Amino acid sequence: GNGGRVNWWTSELANLKKKVRAHFKRAKRSRNWDSYHNLLTKYNLAVRRAKRLSWKNFCNSLEGVKDTSRIYKVLAKDKSSSLGALEGPNGELVHNPQDILELMANTHFPGCVLQQ
């Protein structure tokens, strides 16, 4: 395996995590939790941002039916996964699952027609 490594993890996130741990230890002694909570929030936002960017880059790298159908199979098997929202061509967020599928199909396979 890859030793538990994920492609979105960066040295900046690792450094931020170390700072969070240090602030946690300091807060336990001093009982001043504000600094720790602020840094933890910053860290969690950075992790979410990194994951989102990694997913976006992955989706942009998909080429052809084979890659895209593999993703569809994975998402279809996992009932807890959801597409969330995608950004439409005019910058609007698309939430409806059918509209998301149409957007993905038109983006990756221009001119294709989805069958119901």
List keywords for this structure.
single chain; about 120 residues; mainly alpha; two-stranded antiparallel sheet; about 65% helix
SSE ordering: HHHEEH
Structural class: mainly alpha
Number of strands: 2
Query: What helical percentage do the residues reach?
Result: 55-70%
N- to C-terminal distance: 39 Å
> Within the largest sheet, what's the order of strands?
1-2
Can you put this structure into words, describing what you see?
By secondary structure, this protein is mainly α. The protein has a domain at about 1-60. About 65% of the residues lie in helices and about 5% in strands. The protein contains 4 helices and 2 strands. It has a two-stranded antiparallel sheet. A hairpin with a 5-residue loop joins strand 1 (about 85) and strand 2 (about 95). Helix 1 (about 10-30) runs antiparallel to helix 2. The longest helix has 28 residues, at about 35-60. The model has no long low-confidence stretch (mean pLDDT about 85).
